[in-house]
């Protein structure tokens, strides 16, 4: 195996542009769907009652605010570093390092949480220890991702089809035993809003598509399209499942079940269908773990390419032109993290980190407007001109406000843990201040 050290602008170091719109869209849909909806729909039903479908629509609108910002920045800067790269241009290398730190940490921690979910399903089906199952899916994910972007995304695409098929199956079962009376309660805004705040977590993952922009064909057009299409497709599936599930068993029964979608299937077809849904959930968790490892490896590659991390992590290897060292580091770190915390704790830390990153990404779009930079491929709509401020994009400002609102709504332990992770990243940036100061600052920056 040959390895080439990466540096910006060198042809030898470049990742291979092999991903078209279908592969990008399937990857985005796969990581958004994940396994969250299989459990979240019950908890959200407790909040929103029979109008959980409206909560899914509201959460989709909130997701779209930041999704539009990612779409514009991915088109303007098709770089594997994604959030790190956007923050580097807008706020400088030191702030960018902290944003990159939070992004990679969130992806690794989320990968660990999803792997534990995989281990739980595998243990229920085969009696294999939960921790061992988590390691199996992470090591397997490293192996698949090491084959190259095109091959690994195609595997993810197949798993996505199975994953989406499971949701379509639940919808078909629910509509076959549908009682419209379950949805006739009066809609109240506050419960719908509370349900949306919870359901927002089921949409997280769209941002990782930006890490594939350096391996996308025509990234200025295909990456923004893939982000928006995958969010739209996930929303359609979520709303359909929500209506079918509530119509089949009612919001109260859905909210009291530990396996709400399995309950829908069991109500119509019996207990054996739970095993089928467990197998589909295995595919969902494996798919999400794979795509999170791919994204984390690309982020490490992007940061190393900019000089913010050791050059060894900016190397590509083999025929697939894979940032193998970053991939292995992310996978093994995620495997270690599975030994340190529960799924709930890990998810809380993930959410905090991503809310901060989303604020920075929306802020980067505002920075571009203030500089009057030309936009290629996609532009967030809704710019207005204000006295002294000039051209200001409205939607990114709303996106920052919403993400801060959701961040403040997290459990206190999540905020404390997230702040600890953020401060640790700032401390590491301070230790490596000289390295970061020598790093290529690129176009822009303060």
Describe this structure in words.
This protein is mainly α and 446 residues long. The chain has one domain: Amino acid/polyamine transporter I. 70% of the residues lie in helices and 3% in strands. The protein is built from 17 helices and four strands. The strands form two sheets. A two-stranded antiparallel sheet has the order 1-2. Strand 3 and strand 4 form a beta hairpin. Helix 5 runs antiparallel to helix 12, helix 6 packs across helix 12 and helix 7 runs parallel beside helix 9. The longest helix is centred in the first third of the chain and has 34 residues. The protein is globular. The N terminus and C terminus are likely disordered.
Record the strand order, biggest sheet: 1-2
DSSP strand tally: 4
Proportion in helices: over 70%
Strand content: under 5%
Give the C-alpha Rg.
21 Å
Identify the notable features of this structure and list them briefly.
446 residues; mainly alpha; Amino acid/polyamine transporter I; two-stranded antiparallel ribbon; disordered N terminus
């Amino acid at each position: 195996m040959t390895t080439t050290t990466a540096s910006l602008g060198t042809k030898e170091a470049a990742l291979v542009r092999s991903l078209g719109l279908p592969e990008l869209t399937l990857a985005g849909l796969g990581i958004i769907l994940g396994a969250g909806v299989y459990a979240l729909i019950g908890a959200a039903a407790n909040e929103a009652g029979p109008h959980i479908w409206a909560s899914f629509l509201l959460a989709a609108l909130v997701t779209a605010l930041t999704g539009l910002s990612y779409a514009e920045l991915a088109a303007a800067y098709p770089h594997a570093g994604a959030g790190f790269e956007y923050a580097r241009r807008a706020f400088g290398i030191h702030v960018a390092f902290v944003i990159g730190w939070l992004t990679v940490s969130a992806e690794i921690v989320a990968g660990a949480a999803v792997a534990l979910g995989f281990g739980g399903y595998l243990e229920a089906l085969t009696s294999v220890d939960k921790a061992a199952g988590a390691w199996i899916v992470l090591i397997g994910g490293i192996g698949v991702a090491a084959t190259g972007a095109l091959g690994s995304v195609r595997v993810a695409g197949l798993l996505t089809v199975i994953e989406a098929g499971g949701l379509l199956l639940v919808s078909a079962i629910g509509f076959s035993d549908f009682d419209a009376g379950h949805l006739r309660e009066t809609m109240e805004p506050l419960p719908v809003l509370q349900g949306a705040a919870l359901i927002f977590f089921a949409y997280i993952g769209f941002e990782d598509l930006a890490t594939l922009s350096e391996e996308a064909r025509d990234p200025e057009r295909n990456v923004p399209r893939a982000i928006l299409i995958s969010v739209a497709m996930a929303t359609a599936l979520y709303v359909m499942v929500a209506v079918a599930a509530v119509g089949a068993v009612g919001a109260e029964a859905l909210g009291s079940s530990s396996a709400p979608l399995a309950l829908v299937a069991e109500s119509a077809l019996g207990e054996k269908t739970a095993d089928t849904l467990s197998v589909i959930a295995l595919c969902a968790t494996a798919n999400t773990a794979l795509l999170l490892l791919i994204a984390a490896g690309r982020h490490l590659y992007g940061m190393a390419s900019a000089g913010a991390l050791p050059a060894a992590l900016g190397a590509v290897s083999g025929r697939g032109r894979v940032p193998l060292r970053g991939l292995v580091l992310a996978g093994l770190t995620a495997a270690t993290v599975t030994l340190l915390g529960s799924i709930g704790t890990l998810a809380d830390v993930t959410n905090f980190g991503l809310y901060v990153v989303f604020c920075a990404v929306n802020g980067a779009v505002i920075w571009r407007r203030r500089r009057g930079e030309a936009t290629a491929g996609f532009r967030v709509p809704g710019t207005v001109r204000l006295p002294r401020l000039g051209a200001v994009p409205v939607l990114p400002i709303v996106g920052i406000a919403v993400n801060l609102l959701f961040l403040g709504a997290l459990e206190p332990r999540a905020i404390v843990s997230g702040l600890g992770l953020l401060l640790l990243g700032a401390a590491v940036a301070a230790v490596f201040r000289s390295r970061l100061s020598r790093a290529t600052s690129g176009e822009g920056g303060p």
